[in-house]
Amino acid sequence: MSATAAEPETAPPYRPPTHVAVIMDGNGRWAAARRLPRVAGHRAGARAVRRTIEAAIRQGVRWLTLYAFSSENWRRPAGEVVDLTGLLRQYLKSEIDELQANGVRLRIIGDRTRFDPDIQRDLVAAERLTAANRRLNLIVALSYGSRAEIVAAARAAAEAARDGRLDLATLDEAMFEGFLSTAGVPDPDVIIRTSGEQRLSNFLMWQAAYAEFIFLDVLWPDFDATHFAAALAEFARRERRFGARPG
Ligand code: IPE
Ligand code: IPE
Ligand code: MG
Predict the structure, then answer these.
(1) End-to-end alpha-carbon separation of the chain, Å?
(2) Model pTM?
(3) Alpha-carbon torsion (50, 125, 74, 151), positive or negative
(4) Which residue's CA is minimally distant from atom 12 of ligand 2?
(5) What would the pLDDT profile of 191-247 be if each residue is shown by its tens digit?
(6) Are the C-beta atoms of residues 189 and 56 closer than 8 Å to each other?
(7) d(CA 14, CA 233)
(8) Which whole number is the average pLDDT over 166-178?
(9) Cβ pair 146, 201 in contact under 8 A
(10) 102, 135 in Cβ contact below 8 A?
């Protein structure tokens, strides 16, 4: 990946979406198909993350959200949770310089307090280090669940009302959005899910109100720049209406 060009190197033949969100699914099946342990699939999945970030930059996408670990994923067998948090720990150490060199701003959404203290410290450090970067806004959803996010926002709004900082009668969608973990982030234009599953699995349910969905039969560790470009091309063919009269 070029660390110098501020603009996409080759302009795609369509206007890229502003915000692409990805449900990175299928690591386990990828490993099973190779008779490998699931952790091998997660490791290969981490390499696909790197490719996807590079592809997003090249395509001129400004916001990329990656669903890496759901609040429900804590229910997986303890060994797999240890493998996944171990990979996260490793990823933060090995990739941070690359993110910084490429102008990527990293933000985390989700309940980070459930991770080990050293991971929490590395997350804060990575966010601080990259805070001024503007080329790509990378949001990684970790221990994230949309329902928990919405409940937390409702609680924060209620507390603000109780403390006299908010008049509940004036609470509207835009104000409520300000209490979500994605406050100020444009809604995803397109949500890609790999592995053939066709569901949200508790991902960005508020934010996805008018997102276009693209479900791909590729397993996440096989996802590459070609799949990414094809998804953007598919998005460009969709007619978005936002409830208005069809043009
Ligand atoms: C996605 O792959 C990674 C996480 C959910 C952490 P999976 O681990 O869900 O892989 P499959 O769905 O079992 O193939
Ligand atoms: C969704 O995948 C969460 C992530 C990709 C991080 P899952 O594999 O956990 O979702 P379900 O259980 O198939 O719905
Ligand atoms: Mg899965």
Answers:
(1) 40
(2) 0.95
(3) negative
(4) 201
(5) 999 999 999 999 999 999 999 999 999 999 999 999 999 999 999 999 999 999 776
(6) no
(7) 7
(8) 97
(9) no
(10) yes
- Cα–Cα nearest to 58, from 233, 223, 193, 229: 229
Atom of ligand 1 nearest to the CA of 219: 14
The token pair at 23 is 């449900």
67 Cα: distance to centroid of ligand 2 (angstroms):
9
| Structure tokens belonging to residue 134 | 């503007």
Cα–Cα distance list, 209 to 9, 144, 188, 236 (Å): 32, 18, 9, 18
What residues are paired with 106 via a beta bridge? 138
> Which CATH number is correct for 19-222, 2.40.50.1000, 3.40.50.300, 3.40.50.1000, 3.40.1180.10?
3.40.1180.10
Residues recognised as catalytic: 25, 73
Give how far Cα 52 sits from Cα of 41, 48, 69, 184, Å: 16, 6, 17, 23
